[in-house]
Design brief:
- There is one protein chain.
- The chain has a single domain, classed as Rossmann fold, CATH 3.40.50.
- Helices cover 45% and strands 16% of the residues.
- It contains nine helices and eight strands.
- Strands 3-4-2-1-5-6-7-8 form an eight-stranded mixed β-sheet, with helices on both faces.
- Helix 1 (13-24) packs across helix 9 (211-221), helix 3 packs parallel to helix 4 and helix 4 packs parallel to helix 6.
- It binds NADPH dihydro-nicotinamide-adenine-dinucleotide phosphate.
- Residues 8-9, 11-15, 32-34, 36-37, 57-60, 85-88, 108, 112, 135, 137, 180, 182-183, 185-188 line the site of NADPH dihydro-nicotinamide-adenine-dinucleotide phosphate.
- NADPH dihydro-nicotinamide-adenine-dinucleotide phosphate binds next to helix 1, strand 2, helix 4 and helix 7.
- NADP(+) binds at residues 9-12, 85, 150-154, 183.
- Pathway: Lipid metabolism; fatty acid biosynthesis.
- Keywords: Fatty acid biosynthesis, Fatty acid metabolism, Lipid biosynthesis, Lipid metabolism, NADP, Oxidoreductase.
- Residues 3-186 form the Ketoreductase domain.
């Protein structure tokens, strides 16, 4: 059964791979962008690009989130599957981290996901069906030097998903967390090559993953086959975080 899916930050990286995987299986897929990436290029606001419907949205702004959902609802119908993927890093050691660097990352990664989940829940409750998937990180539970802000935001998503599970589980709404390890995207391309080599050594699989390897897990979590899975944290990290 085709569903309406919204992927935040779906114009590039992991979000784009997730959006394309849903589109490939025949779902109606909207992705948010902020003017860049494959969906944003030249697009002032909303519009179809291939099999995806792009809509402008900044997850740090509740009004922007609300407007994006409204546009998607008008174009594709109520959002049945939310993938809260938009995320940023702003790494630096604790002693140097400003309060703005801490709250800025939290505002996008954690509060941004909350804004989207809250907005999505209204229509999911009415439909008595919904899937929320939060893209966290191995770093949320493993920690990362220089990533107090990022790790806190990603760990917070676990509490969000588990609380939503307790609140809305009885309404046939599931909320799960996917925790990728190191994936080849713009985010990890920023890392110096020595750090990338160190990480590769620590990963049992011995390599970074492709965005598609995350996408398959996300589409599966949204499927009917995964209807009894909620509040779970699913690692896609080549074994890096074993024991979480
Ligand atoms: P990218 O940096 O390639 O893409 C980040 C996406 O988030 C972009 O689409 C970006 O939009 C969007 N975004 C950032 N801030 C906002 C905002 N305020 N409002 C709306 N959209 C925003 O990252 P990845 O694809 O690598 O990461 C995707 C998710 O996966 C993130 O949550 C990240 O933390 C997580 N992750 C990534 C890992 C990795 O190794 N790459 C590992 C574990 C988790 P725009 O193009 O407009 O900037």
């Amino acid at each position: 059964m085709a569903r309406t899916v919204l992927v935040t930050g779906g114009n590039r990286g992991i979000g784009l791979a997730i959006a394309q995987a849903f589109a490939k299986q025949g779902d109606r897929v909207a992705v948010t962008h902020r003017g860049g990436g494959v969906l944003g290029a030249g697009a002032g606001g909303a519009g179809h690009q291939g099999s995806l419907f792009g809509v402008r949205c900044d997850v740090t702004d509740a009004a922007s989130v609300d407007a994006a959902f409204t546009t998607v609802e008008e174009e594709l119908g109520p959002v049945e599957v939310l993938v809260a993927n938009a995320g940023i890093t702003d790494d630096t050691l604790l002693m140097r981290m400003s309060e703005e660097q801490f709250t800025g990352v939290l505002d996008t990664n954690l509060t941004g996901a909350f804004r989207c989940a809250k907005r999505a829940s209204k229509k999911m409750l009415r439909a008595k069906w919904g899937r929320m998937i939060f893209i966290s990180s191995v770093v949320g539970l493993y920690g990362g030097a220089g990533q107090v802000n990022y790790a806190a935001s990603k760990a917070g998503l676990v509490g969000v998903a588990r609380s939503i599970t307790r609140e809305l589980g009885v309404r046939n709404i599931t909320a799960n967390v996917v925790a990728p390890g190191f994936i080849d995207t713009d985010m990890t391309a920023k890392l110096p090559e020595e750090r990338r080599a160190e990480y590769r050594k620590a990963i049992p699989a011995g390599r970074f993953a492709e965005p598609d390897e995350v996408a398959g897990v996300v589409t599966w979590l949204a499927s009917d086959a995964a209807g009894y899975i909620s509040g779970a944290v699913i690692p896609v990290d080549g074994g890096l975080g074993m024991g979480h």
